Amino acid sequence: MPFSRSKDPMDDIKRGMGMVGKRRELIEASSDQPIVYDSGVNRMARSLHPGIMKASVSEKEAIGPDCMKITLISEREDGRFPYFRAGQYVTLADEIGTSYLSRPYSIVSSPKQALEGKLEVIVQRKGIFSKHLIEDVSVGDELDVLEPHGDFVYDDLRDGKKILCIAGGSGVTPFLSMMKAIREGSEDFNMVLLYGVRTENQLLFDPKDYENEKIRIEVIISDEEREGYRHGLIDEDLLKEYLDCDSIFLCGPDAMYTYVEGKLKELDTDHIKIRRERNSIGDRKVESVEKYRLTVHIRDAVYEIDAFNNETLIAAMERSDLRVLARCRNGVCGFCHSRLIKGEYHLDPKDDFRRAADKKFNYIHPCCTYPESDMEIDIPVSEV
Question: In b/e form, how buried is each residue of 210-241, taking b as 16+ CB within 10 angstroms?
């Protein structure tokens, strides 16, 4: 019944007071159970962005002289991993002694396999965490997995239909996922893969298992001659054969980037066509190693640790057993962004992907920032 104003204002007040009493009666008589409405949008958000997931190792397979393929099975309630784009990576994390470490690895399985509860990565024996995965982690062990991330993916609006992919060594891993996605139909483009290795036993896959009408693979072996493969380096003559492409994707060591990008520049290749997967940032070269004091705020806790000018802030925190997480470890994703309270730091301009607001309000990315004095930072990401 609509509320109508009476001629006497006191009548309105009395009616209002009566409504307050009725409201209280209804509230006291109602259930104390919270109203839960689980919308489709919320369910999709949880499916695509579950945060830290638990996964168990179901298989380990040695590939080549220094790599291991690790297959993970989802332990989520729905038995799935989040859907991802071929070319993205996941970050794996685990306890090593008293430290909690995390590292990113390109996904080599297909997006369809993720929805079936299966995720595969190839780990090269390089660094403490990769060595831990290869030597210490066994089938049945549990790892923490951060949701897929990264922009090293095919975009049909940007990349056209003809893609040239150039890989060096273990840098072929994101392209394995792309080729599987092409075969299963979740991606639709034509790929030429130039895959450079030093010796035949370093090949991480058999090209015959992947080639079809949309995928062509050229293997180039630098240190030995083998039947069926090219010998030498990815030089100008080889690049000229395949430069009638819409985009060029590069993935490999930094030395490969310098060499190949130099050759592409000599061939007047438009740099806008080139996509490069960034590698994790490690120690930097300094004239002398200096030690500083790093004060770290994580929620209500405050820690004081040593930090050296040749190591990133995230490496210093990991070395001091602080339970902090990084995702990309190259400054791009912004996951580890932290507020700088005080102190001087070094950040290579090519690794500075902060937003304008981050710079304005004194936020840094510890995964690519080196101390140049005593520092104090506040990490908004909670402890694991």
Answer: beeeebebbbbbeeeeeeebbeeebeeebbee
CA dist., res. 215 & res. 182, Å (int): 8
CA distance 322 to 294: 12
CATH at 197: 3.40.50.80
Q: Answer yes or no: is pLDDT of 196 > 60.
A: yes
Number of domains in the chain: 3
* CA-to-CA dists, residue 84 to 81, 108, 181, angstroms: 9, 11, 11
Tell me which residue range forms the domain holding 323.
Answer: 291-379
Please state the φ and ψ torsions of residue 192, each to the nearest 5 degrees.
-115, 125
296 lies in the same domain as 374: yes
Q: Distance between CA atoms of 192 and 195, rounded to whole angstroms?
A: 10
The answer to whether residues 373 and 298 belong to one domain is: yes
The pTM for the full model equals 0.86
pLDDT digits (tens, 9 = 90+) for 209-263: 999 999 999 999 999 999 999 999 999 999 999 999 999 999 999 999 999 999 9
Rounded average pLDDT over 151-167: 95
Residue 353 belongs to domain with CATH number: 3.10.20.30
